[in-house]
Amino acid sequence: MSENLKSLVDHAVDMGKKKADAIIARGVASSDSQVRFSESRIDIAKKWESQNLEIFIVVDGAKTGATVRPASTKKDVEKAVNDVVSFSRTLPDSMFYAGIEEEAKRYHEAPGNYDTKIDQFTEGSTEVVNSIIAAALDEGAKRVAGSIMVTKTETFFRSSLGPEGSSKSTGFELNVRALQDELDYSGQGLRSGTIPSAEKDEMIKAGAKAGRLAKEAVGAVQGEPGVYDLVLTPTVAASVIGDVPTRANPFVAMIGLSPLQDKMGEQIAPDMITVHDDSLLTGGMGTTSFDWEGTPGKKTTIIERGVLKSFLHNTSTARMFETETTGSSRLASVGMGARLLLPGASNIVFENGTTKVDDLLDVDRPTIHVTCNWYSRFQNAQTGDFSTIPRDAMFLHQKGEKKPIKNMRISDNTMRMLANIDALGNDRTQVYWWEVRTPTLIPSMRIRDCRMTAATQ
Amino acid sequence: MKNGKDLAEYSIKYAMDQNCDFAEARYVEDLARGLAYRNGQPVSGGMTPTSGIGVRVLVEGCMGFAAFDRLETELAKRTISTAIKMAKNSRRKEPIDLGEPVTNKAKWKTEAKRPLQDVSIDEMMEAADELNKRMEGLSSYILTLNPRVQSKYYITSEGAKIEGEHSYLLMSAILTATSTRGSEQRYLDMTLAGGWERIDESNLYDMLSDEVDRLKQAAERAVAVKELMDQPIDMVVGQEVAGIIAHENVGHPSEGDRIMGREGAQAGESFWRDLKMGESRVGSEAVNVSEDPTVPKTSGFYGYDDEGVKARKRELIKEGIINEPLLNREFGTKFGRGSNAAARASGYNREPIIRMANTYFEPGDYSFEELVEGVKLGVFMRSFKEWNIDDRRFQSKYTGSEAYLIKNGEVTDTMVKRPIMETTSVGLLTAVDAVSRNHTFEFPGTCGKSDPMQGVPVYAGGGEIRFRSIRLGGVG
Strand locations in A120-245, DSSP E? Predict the structure, then answer.
């Protein structure tokens, strides 16, 4: 751990505890890079260096405030602490504060979270990208676009109430889209993880997969609106079905944006569905040994055999709801500028299924295989009424034939779709990309009777 | 190094000493303060000062970008060097060309009679209290209030030097109204551009009261009118819906980087790719859509874009024919037209890319009453809720939030529950037969694009629009 990071955090806490009832300070040093490409060429290579000091304080009982800002000197720290203390004193009591972690704890190691060859990988990432492009072209794409983001983060935190900890992590996020000359025919490949230097082959395979799907999509015809069974790839399942457990969150429920409000203990999915939030998952993009206030990370079962078992909590919401914290505290943004400690998911983990994907698609009812989606929007987040747009390759399986189709929209309800899952694939994969910002491990799944719509003119 | 401006200038010199062909540096200071409330009770407050330098370089025909937040010379050198090395390794066969040099020197800022930096937290809380009062009676309401000022210092190796300042009063509410018929939700963006005086100028509090009342009415009264599904009908949409259509169905597909594939894996491409500027028809003759960053008191206002090019109005569609794409320097060169000042970067740590500013249907000659007079059976969709559009910007869906049945030339008291316009862009725009003269920017929003995501404040609007013979995608 960087001594500079630790000394800045220590200085913030030592100074802040004299002025506030409690202070948590977290130093986060990041060194990230990205290569973006399109039309089978690299467009831009980017490099970011940042070091932020994040502070949460409690003053005068239940007034809370937070700030996040760049810091590299003790003078920066002093200004940050003084600013946030004086600002927070002017605020009314927060209705969402009922305490923070008060004990120093021991933290479990989060193994497999740091790539010691990260810097070499970053310097050579343009070559990896060129190999990914080549793989997609070899499989039949005419054009290839995408990006690879590589991150390296070092964190040290300390709370005036005792907890402190440090961590180092790395990660990568690859999105490849292979296209034909026509706009209508395309395919996607994704890969994310924590050890990029060990995953070059998997990245190239993602490129090849995108190219293969783009070729299979050639000749796609307009789909017919109607009710179909859907087979969702992990990418789509993470976006549509994975959204439900991320809303097992008391704050989200209290602001009217969760369909899980008042559903505790109810059967909301078939027996085959069990979902956890796992902060300690090896290779998880959201893995952390401790939450923002210093409670150890752990595995929490949200849905067990289809029954809603638990929401995610931090210390405050746990006290408000008379339960235990799940170690899920995050410094969350509400609007721009305002922040507060709220529960949040780390890695959403669905238990894997046992059915081969080919068997999911061995069907006797018209079934649409959706490989990618984007732009999900709710009519009503409380009920789960929503729509989302399949993009890239999509296939209708009917009467033993597979036919590429295009231009359709899933217009349904997330809770109803969750309840209508009838088979789980054995291909569980981590999904983390533009459209899915909570890392989600999830298999393919088949869902009965989903409503597909299309443009009327 | 004394300050960010000095380090920005040093960064240019350092990059050019490393044999770059072009270098630009943007030093940005950004201060956002925020208050958040749930059902009138305070949830959180905070302040987020951000600052840093973003450096973009062109070397051996390849583009590199470096961003750093601490104003340290060695950090600047290290980050820029890595970006240059990575860019060189790109080995791009077709070199990037930014076209003619841009050497503008200018200063601009959003007009603010009462600068947001001078507004006390007490005054912010008073405003929030008043806003919260106006939402009482809803089953749930969330309010965020975030004054934000962003100043930029931009210089290039070509000699451009631009100083600019944005001032936004970002405000939004998530409203839930519940009745025995169920609940209706609406996300309401109330963002104003300028100083604190904009609250009074815009009649903000009464506007919010009105919107709350309308949502309650929709929850209590809206019904599925099945006859609307039996046949094609006429639709009249309000300025907010006109705004989202201008933004999604016209503004996005007009972006030059999408047209040429650069957003292929993220925000997508564009159905304009296969069309010809000045020739291809995508709408009726009544459709004129423009883009204008020079409109004062809008979120999309700027004097010069983030490549130092002077802002000007762009006419995207003229009389139904695509006329002009949005362009930055790179794509202005590729299109052979030059930049039309559409480059925006959301912060110091983002590259400037092609973005919208204020997008709108040009006003027509009709009054609202005249639009409605000609409708035998139809819907007036005043506002929308759920919407989406595919990544070529060709198939869109807009679900009505507040909508009324139109019968025999009159807007009736019957509220229509969630009418859905699910069409292609061309199907939608060719159905336009009239636009009202009542132009307003009713749709402030934050437009998302790129990877990493860049959210930039925009406005959109127009007059009310009449669409003929639309087959609804659903109702109720």
Answer: 143-159, 164-179, 186-193, 221-222, 226-232
Nearest to B48 by CA among A48, A55, A12: A55
Cross-chain Cβ contact B388/A409 below 8 Å: yes
Residues A352, A443 contacting (CB under 8 angstroms): yes
Tokens at B153, concatenated: 């210092």
> Do A187 and A210 touch, CB atoms closer than 8 A?
yes
**Is there a contact between B282 and B313 (Cβ–Cβ < 8 Å)?**
no
A183 and B CB contact within 8 Å? yes
- Of B236, B455, B194, give the one whose Cα is nearest residue B347: B455
Tell me if chain B has a CB within 8 Å of the CB of A90: yes
**H-helix segments, B90-119:** none
Contact call for A51 and B69, based on CB within 8 A = yes
pLDDT in tens, B177-225: 999 989 999 999 999 999 999 999 999 999 999 999 999 999 999 999 9
- Residue A324: other Cβ atoms inside 10 A: 13
B37-57 per-position pLDDT tens digit = 999 999 888 888 999 999 999
Cβ contact, residue pair B38, A457, below 8 Å: no
Distance to chain B for A164, nearest Cα, Å: 23
Judge whether A52 is closer than 8 Å to chain B, CB to CB. yes
CA distance B472 to B432: 15
- Domain coordinates in residue numbering, chain A: 3-214, 220-457
Q: In chain B, helix, strand, coil percent, each to 5?
A: 25, 40, 35
| Residue of chain B minimizing CA distance to A128 | B90
* Domain A3-214 architecture: 2-Layer Sandwich (3.30)
Spatial neighbors of A201 by CB under 8 A, at least 6 apart, are none
Structural domains present in chain B: 4-221 (3.30.2290.10), 226-474 (no CATH)
> What is the predicted pLDDT for the residue at B1?
43
φ/ψ of B369, rounded to 5, equals -60, -40
Positive or negative CA dihedral for A114, A115, A116, A119?
negative
Closest Cβ opposite residue B42 in set A35, A43, A94? A94
**Contact criterion met (CB below 8 Å) for A246 and A286:** no
C-beta of residue A372 within 8 angstroms of C-beta of residue B390:
no
| pLDDT given for residue A256 in this prediction | 92
pLDDT digits (tens, 9 = 90+) for A178-214: 999 999 999 999 999 999 999 999 999 999 999 999 9
Residue A371: C-alpha distances to residues A177, A296, A443, B337 (Å) = 12, 36, 12, 38
Nearest CA in chain B to A453: B473
Q: Percent of chain A at pLDDT above 90?
A: 94
- Are B183 and A380 in contact (CB < 8 Å)? yes
What b/e sequence results for B9-30 when a residue is b if at least 16 CB atoms lie within 10 Å of its CB, and e otherwise?
bbbbebbeebebbbbbbbbbbb
Contact assignment for B427 to A33 by CB distance below 8 Å: no
When pLDDT is cut at 50, 70 and 90, the band that residue A34 belongs to is very high
Say what the ipTM of the complex is.
0.95
